[in-house]
Amino acid sequence: MRPDHLLEARGLTLGYDTTPVVHEVDLVLPAGRITAIIGANASGKSTLLRGFARLLEPRAGVVLLDGEPLHRMRPGDVARVLGMLPQAPVAPDGITVADLVGRGRHPHQGWFRRWSAADDAAVDAALHATATADLVDRPVAELSGGQRQRVWIAMALAQQTGILLLDEPTTFLDLNHQIELLDLLVDLNRQRGTTIVLVLHELNLAARYADLLVAMRSGRIVDAGPPAQVVTAATVRDVFDLRCDVIPDPRTGAPMVIPIGRHAPSTTG
Amino acid sequence: MTAVMAPVGTTARRFRALSRRRLGATVVVLSAVVVLLFVVSLVVGSVVVPPVDAVLATFGVGEDATVFVIQELRLTRAGAAALVGIALGVSGTLFQRVLGNPLASPDFLGVAAGAGTAAAAALVLGGVAGFTLSGYALLGGLATAALVYFLAWHRGVSEYRFILVGIGVGALASSVTSYLVARAEFSDARAALSWLVGSVGMATPGLLRVVAVLLVVLAVSGPGLARMLRALELGDEPARMLGARAERDRFVLLGVAAVLVSVATAAVGPVAFVAMLAGPLAAIALGPTSRSILASGLMGAVILQVADLLAQHALAWPISTGVVTGAFGAPYIAWVLISAARETSAG
């Protein structure tokens, strides 16, 4: 696994029916970093991620993986480099945790090249990293929402890709599990150099955990850069239509957004 | 969650050994039961042949009378129950797993109904019988499967749409069949109705050979199909992220399933519910730790063999196999629907 794979969009336009949802985006996802795509609902952030994951074909422009057009590469080759956790996946009826996580090894196997010691090691590493090793023989359907999400992430980890995309991975999780999950992604990033790109709803968590923020509105990138540069009262107003104060996180210094709302006294004005 | 480390794979290996043992044991036991039932169906009948003589007679060894009874009267039927059962079991589990629904069996998706319509039309309108009739049934099943796939296509085939279109096309095919039977001559109508119930006794050596060849091809391509299925049943997007070509794989798997059920139906008529029951019963035998197309096929054979033995010998007079499977399948559907409803209201 080479950790330095580079994913890049050039003039990328994406859409579902006739209407484009993402317009002419140019974006380099730096290798070995954590990038969070933020924006309001329907801003096109998940669509952009799906474009990077080759789940959507470009209307115009191109996605490049290490300089090669993603849509012309063989799916199996891409799957050894680029993995993604889709939003709210549903496991087949009755499947166990070990079975599901093991299927992450699919791109590393073939018709005749079957299960190997490397596959076992990858599955075990994924199970331990996500604290799901105790659940191996449990049916996925019987798990709690947080456990299920961790199991799917374990499957993506077992795939051992240099780039991992995650579409709103913290949705449906309690706050403590959200933090655990994001900590895990940082571990992955630091210890294996995995490039991580995630769509996040929660702005403060994005600012805290990402090296790079990409703020989107109406299918276009409004601003991209380190959190300290992107998270300003002006940008938040532009991106989310939200009046807010931005203060430094007392522990990390990362910018924190404090919404103002209509009822707060205007002392800081 | 602990830090990312590089363990040696003991958890995964232990679990895999466990599930492989269970799978191996299940396949061995099921195979033994299939062989046993095959011998039983050679043994029992108006003349009871001792098991050893029966097995020897299949190779032409023994007294002429015994060899005649086994080879001419019982062997084809016993073989058909096993081989057609495997074809139906594999077909059913493929449909169910590709479409992610335990009720998504060829019994409801129009394929069996389409084969029946084509056979009824050939019989009633053309007076066709025998091998040619089976050919019409085969074409009818394949054409119906293609029609359902085509109608369900809208930027790809979704599972849900395929099931709904399949049920609709199946209902349409059934009503055409009813119309054909209603306007037929009495003797034709009787022949058509008895064909439409389906019976293992209708198989001929020629048809059985076709089924056998198909199963050999299936066995060779089995590992590839299983690999496709393992990715596809996670859903389109997870499958594509694993490098699978989801749309192509679904086409291939549904195509294989449609060919299997069409050939099976051509051989023995539309015997109800074997395809639907095989996968879920095999899953019970396997437990939650493993899934297997092979075990589902063997379970299909066991179901059809047991049903045919009951059909031939349980009552004072023989009845069609389809009557027995229908009687067992209907309560199962009720049970699936009731437990699904309970889960919905509880969840």
TrEMBL record, chain A:
<dbReference type="InterPro" id="IPR027417">
    <property type="entry name" value="P-loop_NTPase"/>
</dbReference>
<keyword id="KW-0406">Ion transport</keyword>
<keyword id="KW-0813">Transport</keyword>
<dbReference type="InterPro" id="IPR017871">
    <property type="entry name" value="ABC_transporter-like_CS"/>
</dbReference>
<dbReference type="GO" id="GO:0005524">
    <property type="term" value="F:ATP binding"/>
</dbReference>
<dbReference type="Pfam" id="PF00005">
    <property type="entry name" value="ABC_tran"/>
</dbReference>
<keyword id="KW-0547">Nucleotide-binding</keyword>
<protein>
    <submittedName>
        <fullName>ABC transporter ATP-binding protein</fullName>
    </submittedName>
</protein>
<keyword id="KW-0472">Membrane</keyword>
<dbReference type="InterPro" id="IPR003593">
    <property type="entry name" value="AAA+_ATPase"/>
</dbReference>
<dbReference type="InterPro" id="IPR051535">
    <property type="entry name" value="Siderophore_ABC-ATPase"/>
</dbReference>
<keyword id="KW-0408">Iron</keyword>
<feature type="domain" description="ABC transporter">
    <location>
        <begin position="1"/>
        <end position="243"/>
    </location>
</feature>
<dbReference type="InterPro" id="IPR003439">
    <property type="entry name" value="ABC_transporter-like_ATP-bd"/>
</dbReference>
<keyword id="KW-0067">ATP-binding</keyword>
<keyword id="KW-1003">Cell membrane</keyword>
<keyword id="KW-0410">Iron transport</keyword>
TrEMBL record, chain B:
<keyword id="KW-1133">Transmembrane helix</keyword>
<feature type="transmembrane region" description="Helical">
    <location>
        <begin position="160"/>
        <end position="181"/>
    </location>
</feature>
<keyword id="KW-0813">Transport</keyword>
<keyword id="KW-0812">Transmembrane</keyword>
<feature type="transmembrane region" description="Helical">
    <location>
        <begin position="251"/>
        <end position="273"/>
    </location>
</feature>
<feature type="transmembrane region" description="Helical">
    <location>
        <begin position="135"/>
        <end position="153"/>
    </location>
</feature>
<feature type="transmembrane region" description="Helical">
    <location>
        <begin position="193"/>
        <end position="220"/>
    </location>
</feature>
<feature type="transmembrane region" description="Helical">
    <location>
        <begin position="23"/>
        <end position="49"/>
    </location>
</feature>
<feature type="transmembrane region" description="Helical">
    <location>
        <begin position="78"/>
        <end position="96"/>
    </location>
</feature>
<keyword id="KW-1003">Cell membrane</keyword>
<feature type="transmembrane region" description="Helical">
    <location>
        <begin position="108"/>
        <end position="129"/>
    </location>
</feature>
<feature type="transmembrane region" description="Helical">
    <location>
        <begin position="323"/>
        <end position="341"/>
    </location>
</feature>
<dbReference type="InterPro" id="IPR037294">
    <property type="entry name" value="ABC_BtuC-like"/>
</dbReference>
<dbReference type="Pfam" id="PF01032">
    <property type="entry name" value="FecCD"/>
</dbReference>
<keyword id="KW-0472">Membrane</keyword>
<dbReference type="InterPro" id="IPR000522">
    <property type="entry name" value="ABC_transptr_permease_BtuC"/>
</dbReference>
<comment type="similarity">
    <text>Belongs to the binding-protein-dependent transport system permease family. FecCD subfamily.</text>
</comment>
<protein>
    <submittedName>
        <fullName>Iron ABC transporter permease</fullName>
    </submittedName>
</protein>
